[in-house]
Amino acid sequence: MWFRDHYYWVWVFLTGLLFCGSVRGVVINIPADQPTIQAGIDSAIDGDEVVVAPGTYLITATIDFLGKAITLRSVSGDPNDTILDGQGSVFHVVQCVNGEDSNTVLSGFTITGGNANSTDHTDYTSNGGGMFNRDSGPTITHCIFRGNFAADFGGGISNQNSHPVIRDCDFSNNTSDGMYNAGNFPISSSPFVSNCTFKNNTGAGMYNVSSSPVIQDCQFNDNISRGIHNANSSKPKILNCDFSGKRQSFFTTHLHVSFTPTKSLS
After folding, report:
1. How far is CA 18 from the centre of its chain?
2. CATH top-level class for 29-244?
3. Whole-model pTM?
4. Mean per-residue pLDDT for 79-92?
């Protein structure tokens, strides 16, 4: 009987070690462990972290999370230290298009130089120069989206049928729109956006089409078109946001908009 109990507890102990090892994840350092960010993502499994050293990284192919529940972050957490530069040569600098959820995390980067300049308006390569999300819901924190271009919508970031959590980010000097949220009936985009700044974007700070974002504690300053533009029955909820500068407003009605946002000036 003693031997039976002894082997049982050994089995429990070894099973526990295996389980803990499977969920703990490993850290993949760029460029120490892998030469590129995409190589780090390619080698990662769910639960891993891809940690990027400070510097400017010239992106020649879109960084794709490949549906993995991993964290891609900079070492310092300061987006000014680690820059992902598309150099105008990629449609999207970063993308989540494989059903990623909130366990997929992007944190601590400046994302610039995305160029969604395609004339094909059916495959989304004219949307989302900085980042493009489709049918996904990643977590995006402490990032700067600056100086990205889209021929249609969402120079900074474009969310198509997506529900990302976006916190503590800055969207500035993007063409057109800092953020674009769109849905295809009956699915809508419903991002949660908090403590973000939208400034000097050509177009709107945020453009919503058939979408229901929650926008909390954000600032909209000096965007060329509007602070927030809503279309096609979008229903944003706006909480404790500040709108200042030329041509800023809470929303623009267009194409049968029907919503009752909560809004405030601070």
Report:
1. 33
2. mainly beta
3. 0.86
4. 98
